[in-house]
Write a structure and sequence with these properties.
The complex is a heterodimer of chains A (114) and B (111). Chain A starts with a strand and ends with a strand. Chain A has strands spanning 5-7, 10-13, 19-24, 31-38, 42-50, 53-57, 64-68, 74-78, 87-94, 104-105, 109-113. By secondary structure, chain A is mainly β. Chain B has 111 residues and is mostly beta strands. Chain B contains no helices and 11 strands. Chain B has strands at 5-7, 10-14, 19-24, 29-37, 44-49, 55-58, 61-65, 71-76, 85-93, 100-101, 105-110. In chain B, strands 2, 4, 5, 9, 10 and 11 form a 6-stranded mixed sheet that branches. In chain B, strands 1-3-8-7-6 form a 5-stranded antiparallel sheet, with no helix packed on it. The mean pLDDT of chain B is 92. Classes of the chains: A mainly beta (114), B mainly beta (111). Chains A and B meet through strand 5 and strand 10 of A and strand 5, strand 9 and strand 10 of B.
């Protein structure tokens, strides 16, 4: 069974631009969560989608948004990029929604904002 | 402010030594997970503990959940270079619907 895939793996943008990251979950998984990982703050929860609906949202500004498609693939968008948005963005898929279930992480997208 | 504090932040030991990583919080968690992350990859789940006082063993790794469900520890016996990586704890609070990750412990095992 193929794992979680994320594209692109690396991305360089400049301040003020916007970016869209993509995540394809494990086949059959309907829950996708997004996390931001930085050296200073560690792994922080962005949001979770299940069956095309956002179930939970972390404490991030509205510049961070996401969506999930009927095939469970998910995209995350960051508008008006800031230097502090440079991070590894990870998505994780799970067969069920909510906490307590095993999450399978993708390799991440490394975003650098110049 | 981090909900879960891990210590130590960095650890460099010789192959064959034992080590313990701690994950502490002032909050109570319904479950706690430990992950290992290697460079260029996402975290991989090692174990989930759900009962206060629970101890789980995974080969040379021993995980313990505190009686009050506020803390956890990971003990590695006879560390090997393949154990090198970033160890993360993640907890699900009793109220709330998201995982909170710890600050991480970067382990290097020197051959």
């Amino acid at each position: 069974k193929a794992g979680v895939t994320q594209t692109p793996r690396y991305l360089i943008k400049t301040r003020g631009q916007q970016v869209t990251l993509s995540c394809s979950p494990i086949s059959g998984h309907r829950s996708v969560s997004w996390y931001q990982q930085t050296p200073g703050q560690g792994l922080q929860f962005l949001f979770e989608y299940f069956s095309e609906t956002q179930r939970n949202k972390g404490n991030f500004p509205g510049r961070f948004s996401g969506r999930q498609f009927s095939n469970s693939r998910s995209e995350m968008n960051v508008s008006t990029l800031e230097l502090g948005d440079s991070a590894l963005y990870l998505c994780a898929s799970s067969s069920l929604a909510g906490v307590g279930y095993e999450q399978f992480f993708g390799p991440g997208t490394r975003l650098t904002v110049l | 402010t981090q909900l879960l504090e891990q210590s130590p932040q960095f650890l460099s030991i010789q192959e064959g030594e034992n080590l313990t990583v701690y994950c502490n919080s002032s909050s109570v968690f319904s479950s706690l997970q430990w992950y290992r992350q290697e460079p260029g990859e996402g975290p991989v789940l090692l174990v989930t503990v759900v009962t206060g006082g629970e101890v789980k063993k995974l080969k040379r790794l021993t995980f313990q959940f505190g009686d009050a469900r506020k803390d956890s520890s990971l003990h590695i016996t006879a560390a090997q270079p393949g154990d090198t990586g970033l160890y993360l704890c993640a907890g699900a609070p009793r109220t709330g619907n998201q995982f909170y990750f710890g600050t991480g412990t970067s382990l290097t095992v020197i051959p």
